Amino acid sequence: SVSPRQPAPGGGGGGGPSPCGPGGGGRAKGLKDIRIDEEVKIAVNIALERFRYGDQREMEFPSSLTSTERAFIHRLSQSLGLVSKSKGKGANRYLTVKKKDGSETAHAMMTCNLTHNTKHAVRSLIQRF
Fold this sequence. Notes:
Blueprint: H1 38-53, E1 58-61, H2 67-79, E2 82-87, E3 94-99, H3 103-108, H4 116-128
Antiparallel strand pairs: 1-3, 2-3
Helix pairs in contact: 1-2
């Protein structure tokens, strides 16, 4: 069983649904405790997923983020097997996200081979939405 974590200092509490997507499982851990705009959650989730599967080793988020948004990114990064760190002080505080070395991130990726019929069924379901 997964127990919720306390929000980071200055962070919000209680709130909306957690993001979902490839990666599954423990991803919701603590994310629902942080209240930020759904648009920000979606944008951060997409950015981290692209980063996770891309060639970059490090990614930087701007100093314009609030402490609550940074807390969300820290928790989401951790749940995706990434390492995050805030740097700087006050209005100049920003966040970097790095990939863990080799074998640790390799375990986070999984492939799934589907038959032709299964691919067709998935496509038709997706097109309905």
